[in-house]
Amino acid sequence: MKKFRTLLVACALTLGTFSFVSAQSKVAHIASQELVESMPSFKAAKSEIEKLNKTYEAEIRNMALELQNTAKKYTQEQETKTQEENLKRQQELQATERSIGDYRQNALQDLQKKEIELLKPIYEKARTAIQKVARAQGFSYVLDSTTGTGVIMADGKDLMADVKKDLGI
Description:
- The protein has five helices and three strands.
- The protein is mainly alpha-helical and 169 residues long.
- Strands 2-1-3 form a three-stranded parallel beta sheet, covered by helices on one side.
């Protein structure tokens, strides 16, 4: 009876140890920003965004130059115009300044929308690939090891090579 009890306790401890070991979660890590930046679609999207930004900058620069030239002209003609006309011209310049400011704001908003529109599917594709690879390899959790995300040490499995392979990059 005593041997039976000892055997039962030993079996219980062994089963408890195995269930504890199997209950532990596997953890991996990946630098998600590095992954996204290595994707060709990300580079193409960034290029398109930069091109659009340069277009807006050139347009704003042209508008500002035109305003500056008009202001210079009005200043030179100020002595030959009536006070009422000069006041009207000043208001016209202020309205043009406001319209340039509004255009700049709209351009920034348009750039942000375009960036979200182009980058959201890329981030989603990366996230899906990370999940696919992690599940295939039996990982319960994947930490983002991108610098500044809070992961100080990442000794677990790095999924970068496997996810890049899955994405074909």
